Amino acid sequence: MNTHQSSTPGHSAHHRAAPASKTTAVILTLLLAILALSLPSSSAARVLTDTPAVAVRIVDTVPDDALTPAPVNRSVPRQQAEAAPPPPVPTEIQGPLASPPQRIEYAAAGIDVAVYPMEIDQASRETQSLVPPFTLDGYWLSSFGTPGYGSTNTTYVIGHSWEDRDAPFNRLSSGAVPGETFTVTTATGVLTYRVDSVTTFLKSTLKDSDIWRILPNRLVLISCYTEDLWGKNVVVVASPVP
To answer: Tens digits of per-residue pLDDT, 164-175?
Structure first.
Protein backbone atom coordinates (compact mmCIF):
# COMPACT_ATOMS: atom_id res chain seq x y z
CA MET A 1 0.00 0.00 0.00
CA ASN A 2 1.76 3.15 -1.17
CA THR A 3 -0.78 5.83 -0.45
CA HIS A 4 0.00 8.17 2.46
CA GLN A 5 -2.40 8.55 5.32
CA SER A 6 -1.99 10.86 8.27
CA SER A 7 -1.68 9.45 11.76
CA THR A 8 -4.72 9.18 13.94
CA PRO A 9 -5.09 11.46 17.00
CA GLY A 10 -3.07 10.38 19.99
CA HIS A 11 -0.37 8.62 17.96
CA SER A 12 3.24 9.50 18.54
CA ALA A 13 5.10 11.69 16.06
CA HIS A 14 7.50 8.78 15.70
CA HIS A 15 5.02 7.26 13.23
CA ARG A 16 5.75 9.98 10.72
CA ALA A 17 9.48 10.55 10.76
CA ALA A 18 12.66 9.17 12.26
CA PRO A 19 14.35 11.20 15.04
CA ALA A 20 16.66 13.87 13.64
CA SER A 21 17.79 15.81 16.70
CA LYS A 22 19.41 15.37 20.06
CA THR A 23 16.13 16.34 21.70
CA THR A 24 14.35 13.41 20.07
CA ALA A 25 17.18 11.10 21.12
CA VAL A 26 16.77 12.22 24.73
CA ILE A 27 13.01 11.59 24.55
CA LEU A 28 13.59 8.09 23.19
CA THR A 29 16.09 7.40 25.95
CA LEU A 30 13.57 8.49 28.59
CA LEU A 31 10.86 6.39 26.93
CA LEU A 32 13.19 3.40 26.97
CA ALA A 33 13.84 3.82 30.69
CA ILE A 34 10.12 4.01 31.44
CA LEU A 35 9.15 0.99 29.35
CA ALA A 36 11.91 -1.08 30.95
CA LEU A 37 9.75 -1.26 34.07
CA SER A 38 7.30 -3.53 32.27
CA LEU A 39 9.85 -6.20 31.30
CA PRO A 40 9.40 -9.82 32.41
CA SER A 41 11.48 -10.78 35.43
CA SER A 42 13.58 -13.19 33.38
CA SER A 43 17.10 -11.93 32.80
CA ALA A 44 16.91 -13.16 29.21
CA ALA A 45 14.52 -10.33 28.37
CA ARG A 46 16.92 -7.52 29.21
CA VAL A 47 16.65 -3.94 27.99
CA LEU A 48 19.23 -3.12 25.36
CA THR A 49 20.68 0.04 26.87
CA ASP A 50 24.27 -0.79 25.95
CA THR A 51 23.91 0.11 22.28
CA PRO A 52 23.30 3.39 20.42
CA ALA A 53 20.95 1.64 18.01
CA VAL A 54 17.33 2.75 18.19
CA ALA A 55 14.46 0.29 18.43
CA VAL A 56 11.61 1.49 16.28
CA ARG A 57 8.38 1.58 18.22
CA ILE A 58 5.74 -0.83 17.06
CA VAL A 59 2.50 1.07 17.04
CA ASP A 60 0.28 -1.85 16.27
CA THR A 61 -2.97 0.03 16.20
CA VAL A 62 -5.82 -2.20 17.20
CA PRO A 63 -9.60 -1.77 17.27
CA ASP A 64 -11.46 -1.26 20.54
CA ASP A 65 -13.09 -4.69 20.46
CA ALA A 66 -9.74 -6.35 19.84
CA LEU A 67 -8.25 -4.82 22.97
CA THR A 68 -11.17 -6.33 24.87
CA PRO A 69 -11.67 -9.60 22.96
CA ALA A 70 -15.27 -10.59 22.33
CA PRO A 71 -16.61 -14.10 22.94
CA VAL A 72 -15.57 -16.75 20.44
CA ASN A 73 -18.99 -16.77 18.77
CA ARG A 74 -18.85 -13.06 17.85
CA SER A 75 -20.39 -12.56 14.43
CA VAL A 76 -18.37 -10.94 11.64
CA PRO A 77 -19.93 -8.12 9.59
CA ARG A 78 -21.16 -9.56 6.32
CA GLN A 79 -19.40 -7.04 4.10
CA GLN A 80 -16.10 -7.68 5.88
CA ALA A 81 -16.38 -11.43 5.46
CA GLU A 82 -17.26 -11.14 1.77
CA ALA A 83 -14.64 -8.52 0.96
CA ALA A 84 -11.62 -10.41 2.26
CA PRO A 85 -12.32 -14.03 3.26
CA PRO A 86 -9.44 -15.42 5.32
CA PRO A 87 -7.72 -18.70 4.48
CA PRO A 88 -9.46 -21.69 6.08
CA VAL A 89 -8.12 -22.46 9.53
CA PRO A 90 -9.17 -25.60 11.41
CA THR A 91 -10.97 -24.95 14.67
CA GLU A 92 -9.15 -27.87 16.22
CA ILE A 93 -5.78 -29.51 15.56
CA GLN A 94 -4.18 -32.65 16.86
CA GLY A 95 -1.24 -32.11 19.12
CA PRO A 96 -0.29 -30.32 22.33
CA LEU A 97 -3.01 -28.62 24.33
CA ALA A 98 -3.34 -24.85 23.84
CA SER A 99 -0.83 -23.06 26.05
CA PRO A 100 1.37 -19.92 26.01
CA PRO A 101 4.08 -19.76 23.32
CA GLN A 102 7.63 -19.75 24.64
CA ARG A 103 9.85 -19.76 21.56
CA ILE A 104 9.61 -19.27 17.79
CA GLU A 105 12.14 -20.93 15.46
CA TYR A 106 11.87 -19.90 11.82
CA ALA A 107 15.08 -21.23 10.28
CA ALA A 108 14.41 -20.11 6.70
CA ALA A 109 14.13 -16.49 7.86
CA GLY A 110 16.96 -16.72 10.41
CA ILE A 111 14.65 -16.19 13.38
CA ASP A 112 15.06 -17.91 16.75
CA VAL A 113 13.52 -15.90 19.59
CA ALA A 114 12.24 -16.39 23.09
CA VAL A 115 8.63 -15.30 23.61
CA TYR A 116 7.31 -13.68 26.79
CA PRO A 117 3.74 -12.78 27.80
CA MET A 118 2.64 -9.17 27.45
CA GLU A 119 -0.51 -7.84 29.05
CA ILE A 120 -2.38 -4.96 27.43
CA ASP A 121 -2.40 -2.15 30.00
CA GLN A 122 -4.88 0.69 30.39
CA ALA A 123 -2.69 3.16 28.49
CA SER A 124 -2.63 0.84 25.48
CA ARG A 125 -6.40 0.46 25.64
CA GLU A 126 -6.86 4.22 25.67
CA THR A 127 -4.47 4.92 22.80
CA GLN A 128 -5.24 1.70 20.87
CA SER A 129 -1.49 1.21 20.48
CA LEU A 130 0.86 -1.60 21.44
CA VAL A 131 4.51 -0.99 22.31
CA PRO A 132 6.43 -4.06 23.54
CA PRO A 133 9.52 -3.76 25.78
CA PHE A 134 12.68 -2.68 23.96
CA THR A 135 14.40 -6.06 23.62
CA LEU A 136 15.20 -8.50 20.82
CA ASP A 137 12.56 -10.92 22.13
CA GLY A 138 9.02 -11.67 20.99
CA TYR A 139 5.95 -10.76 23.07
CA TRP A 140 2.75 -12.78 23.12
CA LEU A 141 -0.42 -10.73 23.59
CA SER A 142 -1.89 -12.71 26.45
CA SER A 143 -5.38 -11.19 26.10
CA PHE A 144 -5.91 -13.14 22.88
CA GLY A 145 -5.41 -16.76 21.84
CA THR A 146 -2.96 -19.52 22.71
CA PRO A 147 -1.67 -22.02 20.14
CA GLY A 148 -2.58 -25.70 20.31
CA TYR A 149 -5.49 -28.08 20.68
CA GLY A 150 -8.48 -26.23 22.14
CA SER A 151 -7.39 -22.78 20.90
CA THR A 152 -10.25 -20.26 20.93
CA ASN A 153 -8.67 -17.28 19.15
CA THR A 154 -5.76 -16.07 17.03
CA THR A 155 -2.33 -16.01 18.70
CA TYR A 156 -0.44 -12.71 18.31
CA VAL A 157 3.31 -12.29 18.81
CA ILE A 158 4.90 -8.87 18.32
CA GLY A 159 8.50 -7.66 18.45
CA HIS A 160 10.65 -4.68 17.58
CA SER A 161 12.58 -4.07 14.38
CA TRP A 162 15.75 -2.08 15.00
CA GLU A 163 17.67 0.62 13.17
CA ASP A 164 21.41 0.07 12.62
CA ARG A 165 21.32 -3.28 14.39
CA ASP A 166 20.65 -6.82 13.25
CA ALA A 167 17.60 -8.16 15.07
CA PRO A 168 15.39 -11.24 14.65
CA PHE A 169 12.18 -9.35 13.87
CA ASN A 170 13.95 -7.30 11.18
CA ARG A 171 14.01 -10.51 9.17
CA LEU A 172 10.24 -10.76 8.94
CA SER A 173 10.46 -7.98 6.33
CA SER A 174 13.13 -9.62 4.19
CA GLY A 175 13.05 -13.32 4.97
CA ALA A 176 9.45 -14.45 5.51
CA VAL A 177 7.93 -16.16 2.46
CA PRO A 178 4.47 -17.76 2.05
CA GLY A 179 4.65 -21.54 2.08
CA GLU A 180 7.58 -21.77 4.47
CA THR A 181 7.21 -23.47 7.85
CA PHE A 182 8.41 -22.65 11.35
CA THR A 183 7.90 -24.06 14.83
CA VAL A 184 6.38 -22.66 17.99
CA THR A 185 7.39 -24.19 21.30
CA THR A 186 4.70 -23.91 23.96
CA ALA A 187 4.39 -24.98 27.57
CA THR A 188 2.90 -28.29 26.39
CA GLY A 189 4.85 -29.14 23.22
CA VAL A 190 5.95 -28.05 19.74
CA LEU A 191 3.65 -26.95 16.91
CA THR A 192 4.51 -26.42 13.22
CA TYR A 193 3.02 -23.52 11.28
CA ARG A 194 3.00 -22.69 7.57
CA VAL A 195 3.13 -19.05 6.39
CA ASP A 196 -0.07 -18.07 4.58
CA SER A 197 0.79 -14.45 3.79
CA VAL A 198 3.30 -11.66 4.34
CA THR A 199 1.68 -8.23 4.13
CA THR A 200 2.52 -4.62 4.95
CA PHE A 201 0.05 -2.17 6.48
CA LEU A 202 0.16 1.53 7.21
CA LYS A 203 0.34 1.75 11.00
CA SER A 204 -2.70 4.01 10.99
CA THR A 205 -4.81 1.39 9.19
CA LEU A 206 -3.75 -1.85 10.84
CA LYS A 207 -6.71 -1.64 13.22
CA ASP A 208 -9.10 -2.00 10.26
CA SER A 209 -7.53 -5.17 8.86
CA ASP A 210 -8.78 -8.75 9.02
CA ILE A 211 -5.91 -9.86 11.23
CA TRP A 212 -8.06 -9.04 14.29
CA ARG A 213 -10.80 -11.49 13.35
CA ILE A 214 -11.26 -14.37 15.77
CA LEU A 215 -9.79 -17.48 14.11
CA PRO A 216 -8.70 -20.26 16.47
CA ASN A 217 -5.19 -21.64 15.91
CA ARG A 218 -4.14 -18.88 13.50
CA LEU A 219 -0.79 -17.27 14.39
CA VAL A 220 0.09 -13.65 13.53
CA LEU A 221 3.57 -12.13 13.83
CA ILE A 222 3.87 -8.33 13.74
CA SER A 223 6.81 -5.94 13.59
CA CYS A 224 7.80 -2.68 11.89
CA TYR A 225 8.52 -2.95 8.17
CA THR A 226 12.24 -2.33 7.65
CA GLU A 227 11.72 -0.44 4.38
CA ASP A 228 9.51 2.09 6.20
CA LEU A 229 10.16 1.63 9.91
CA TRP A 230 8.21 4.67 11.01
CA GLY A 231 5.20 4.32 8.74
CA LYS A 232 4.37 0.64 8.21
CA ASN A 233 4.04 -2.73 9.90
CA VAL A 234 4.85 -6.11 8.38
CA VAL A 235 2.37 -8.85 9.29
CA VAL A 236 3.02 -12.57 8.85
CA VAL A 237 -0.08 -14.80 9.06
CA ALA A 238 0.39 -18.55 9.53
CA SER A 239 -1.79 -21.63 9.98
CA PRO A 240 -0.95 -24.87 11.81
CA VAL A 241 0.30 -27.80 9.77
CA PRO A 242 -2.03 -30.79 10.35
So the answer is: 888 999 999 999
